Structure formats: structure tokens, C-alpha cells
Amino acid sequence: MRFVAAIVAFVIAFGMIAYGFAQRTVLAAPSTLTASVSTDSPATVTLIDSKTLQSLPGRQKIDISGSSTVFAAYGRTEDVKAWVGKTTYNRIGYKASTQKLTNTVVEGKATKVPNPAGSDLWLGHFSHAKALTFTVNVPSDITVLIVSNGTDPAPNNISLQWPLDNRTPWSGPLMAGGLLLLLIGIGLYIWAVVHHRRSRGPRRKTPKMPKVPRQRGYRQRRAVSSTAGRRSIRRKMVVATPVLLVGTLLLSGCSSELWPEFLGGAHQATPSPSPTTAAPAGEKLDPPAVSIPQLKEIVARISTVATEADKTNDPTLAATRFTGAALALRSANYAIRKVDNTVPALFPIPATAVGLTLPQATDAWPRTVFTVVQNPQDKTVPPVALMLVQDTARDDYKVNYAVQLEAKVDFPKVSAANIGASPVSPDSKLLKLAPQDLALDYGDILDKGTASPFTKDFDLTADKFISSFGNDYRKATAAALPATAAMTVANGNGTNPVIALSTNDSGAIVATELEETVTVKPNEAGAAVNPEGQVKTLSGITGSTKGTVSVYGDQLLFYVPKAGTKGKITLLGFASGLISAKELP
Question: Which residues are listed as membrane-spanning (predicted)?
Fold first, then answer.
């Protein structure tokens, strides 16, 4: 019975082990599901929305081919659709019953799109020649865009691959149980062998054999029996085989995929959604204009353009990333430096770090983003504050204002970058001073000094712009002119739009432009005005009996507190320089 029990234990044990092992090999389910489609549409754009990408759980592997160049990008669904506009495109779907992708052509009025490579709209992008493979794990409201170059038909071979849950949580217990039963069987087998040897001895005394006389000179040799050796080898093999099998199965059984969750096994992974902000019931929050990684790439591109344009004094190149007051100041600086290379270049735009970031919360255009950047390798250079604007979905972000911050500036608290801020109307009455009035009121202080009625609204204790270019500076400049010339200064609003974004205390960060028009005329008949410095360089005039008019552009960044509070308006940063000079008509 002991041998029978051992054999039964062996049979069951090997059956359990074999079945557990088979679950991970020959009986294992596929680890992925792949669905594909080949399109014959001439559309230049293909879109795959998050509903299709999330047809099955897990990360999505996308394979694209069928054109000489393959470009893919992903972004917020509304942003991608705004970029596509009224262009005909392919919409990829998934049919669960056939486990295949489908294609629907959405007709539009246009057939071509700009080359999307380098657009500021994408949260991520990929490109390669002929074929492209990448993996994403998109949350809801994200769409993947696929094109060739915007003119040729989009790549026509597309496949999506999702991971499948092919875990075998009972293969581990089966193999472990089989190993345990195998050890029990080995124990039963050894017990049966020992018992059998003890019970097979002689039951009666064996008669003695007669003695055989020994022959002289003959050495009797004892025969060597191989029986004991064979039995020993068999015993070793019986023990070694289970030990090797146990070791192998124990190593393979360490994987958490082989065990149920209540025994410490792995659970099925699910997609991780991107951080979102919960909106009050019944209210939809607008998303921020950009994400932090997206903004870092945008600033890096702006920095590259600024560095090259500053090096070559190229206003056309600068215009690809600058506009308004920021472009006017740089263009004038380039024109001056082409004639006089001793004039220093404007402050650079760092690309290595993005600090405070306040994007506008919006899903429409134009969009505004305020950010502060600084070179961490050179702390002596003041941080630069940028006010960026994107006019349409297909436009790049451009710098409208670029100012250097005041030393040890204390910024007000603002919303988190993943929430964004609301724009403030230029004529808002909810602030201590309407944003549209800031430039001229501040200019009045420049002109009149402490006699200006607006000094009570501004904190001028650490204002470097007032101390450098205020009333005292204007008086000193006028006094330095010859007695035959007279100078007048007129303040005016710049042509750049006023931009204001709300802060957490219901105040606002405001970027505005003040233009100082300086006119110098002869005050005696026959006298002439002889321009000097940058006015002479930019205007090309060495002397004039009519006089000259020069315009200085002042980019000003303010913090304006809420109306009714005791706080004062503070200048956060500025950039100022000559933007035009010419002879009076």
C-alpha cells in the first residue's frame, strides 16, 4: 500500500505541475491584441481620438507606415481639431466585434494643411522616415494626429496594439502544490523501500556449508559485485531528479503573475490619467493654455531664435518669435548695431529653466502665457519675464513683452500652472487702477516726479526705472543741450495691447507699453541740431535745421492690487530703448 500511495502521489503531483506549467506555455493566452487598417483615402490628415485609443485598457503601441515621411503628434482634442480646421481628414475607430480598426473620411473644404512639425500646440510629437512606432498612454480628451508633410496623403497603414491580461494566477499554486505532493510521494516511496527491506529477511536458520580446504599458493579473490553500486546510483537519481525539478519550478514560480492577488500576486495595470482639476458641479473649467513640458519646449525654441537673431542682427528671423513692443525694441537694436557694433545687444532669453508660470485658462484663441525664465548657470543676470501670445491654433507663440525683473522682486501668489488664470479686461474697475490707464499715469510720474497726483497709487521706494529715467533725468538731458536747442517729451500709449492676468488675491499682473516721444528743435533762426549717440546712428542724421524726433519704447510689468485695498501698484520689471529716430518734416 505504501508503494501504491507513493505512485498515486507521483501521478497527481506531476499532473498538477504539468498543468501549471502548461498554463504558462502551450495553454497561455496572447499577451497583446493588435488591430490594423489600411486606408485608400487621399486625405492629408488622420486622427485617432482617445475613445479609440482606450478601446482596451493599457498602454497603446501605434505603428504607422505608408509614406516617405511619417509625423505623429498628440494634444488636447479640441486643440488638434482647431489646428485641422476645415481640412478633410481620416477618423480612425475600433470595431470590437471584429477586433479591427475602421476609417471614416470627414469631408472639409480644404485638402492640405501646413507642415505640423515644430508647432507649439503639441504635447508630444514623433517623426521618422517611412515608418514610425511609438507607445503612449493617453488620458481622456487627447487625440493623435498623423500626417506625412501636410501636402501628400497621410500614411495609410495604421495598427494599434494593446496589452492583454494573460496572467495565470493559479499556475503558481498548482506547481507549488504539485511540488509539495511530489515531496510527500518521495517520502512515502523511501518509507516503503525501508519497510520492504526489513521485512524480506530469512525466516529459518540457513544450514552451514562444508568448509573447502585452501590450496597452497592460491590467493582467493573476492568478486566485486556491481549490485550495490547500481542501487546506490538509482537512489541518487531518484533523489536528484526531484531536487532539480523543485529548483527549476521554484525559480519560475517567483513571478507575481503566477499567483492570485490575495496571495500577493500582481493586479492588472490600468491607465494613469493626467492630473486634472475638479470643477464645481455643473461648471466646466477651461484648461490652461499650455502644460509645463510644452512651455519648456516653446521657450527653448524662442531662445534659439533670439540667440541667432541677436548674433546676426536679423529682424526677419526675430519676427518669427517676437512681435509688438518686444520686436520693435529688438529690431531697432539690430539696426543700430549694424552701424555701430560697440552698442551692446539686448539681454538674452534663457532656455535652461522655466520658473513661475501663469498660463491663461482658455480653450479659445488668442491665448496668453506669462512665465519667468533664468539661466541657473549665471545668477548675476536678472531673470527675464515673458508675455507670450498665440493668435491662432496654427500660429506659434510669440513674445509680446520681454522685460528684466527688478532685483529681489516679490511676486504675488498666482494659480498653479495646471489650473491657469483668467484674463482681466483692460478697462476693469475691480483693480486699484484700470490696466489701460497704467502707462500714462506712470508716465505722468516720469514727467512731473513727486508733483504728480498719481504717486500715491504707486510704490516708488525701489523703482529703478523712475530713478534712472524719471523727472531728474529728463531735466538733466534738457540742460545738457546747447542754448540754441530745446527739448520736449510727450508720453503716449504704445501700439502693443495691454495684457493682464489675475492673481490669487484678485489683483493682476499687467504688461503695458509707454512710448516717450522726445523732440529736439532749434530755437533760433539758422541754428541746427546735431544728434548724438544712438539717435544719430539710427536716424543717419548728422545735423538738421528742422530738428529730430525720437521714440523710446518702455515695456512695463506691474502688479496691480485689488480695488479698495491698501496695497500699492508695484513695478515688477521693465525694458526700455530707442525704437525710432528721424528728422522732423
Answer: 174-194, 237-259
Element (H, E) at 207: none
Q: Which tens digit of pLDDT belongs to each residue from 217-229?
A: 444 444 444 444 5
Neighbours of 332 (CB within 10 A): 22
Peptide bond into 280 cis (omega under 30): no
DSSP assignment string, 261-279: GGGTPPPPP---PPP--PP
Q: Which residues touch 223 (CB under 8 Å, ≥6 apart)?
A: none
E-strand stretches of 96-179:
100-106, 124-136, 142-147, 157-163
- Is the CB of residue 193 less than 8 Å from the CB of residue 231? no
| Inter-residue contact 430 to 562 (CB < 8 Å) | yes
What does the mean pLDDT of the chain come to?
A: 85
What is d(CA 292, CA 373) in angstroms, rounded to the nearest whole number?
12
Q: SS3 for 546?
A: coil
Instruction: Give dist(CA 584, CA 581) in Å, integer.
Output: 9
d(CA 346, CA 466): 20
In this structure, which amino acid lies at residue 286?
Answer: D
Q: What is the DSSP letter of 320?
A: T
Which of 572, 283, 291 minimizes the C-alpha distance to 416? 291
From the list 125, 90, 116, the residue with the least C-alpha distance to 104 is 90
Domains of the chain, residue spans:
1-29+166-195+240-266, 32-163, 292-583
The whole-angstrom separation of Cα 11 and Cα 179 is 12
pTM of this structure: 0.78
Q: What is Dmax (Cα atoms) for the chain?
A: 165
d(C-alpha 182, C-alpha 170), whole Å = 18
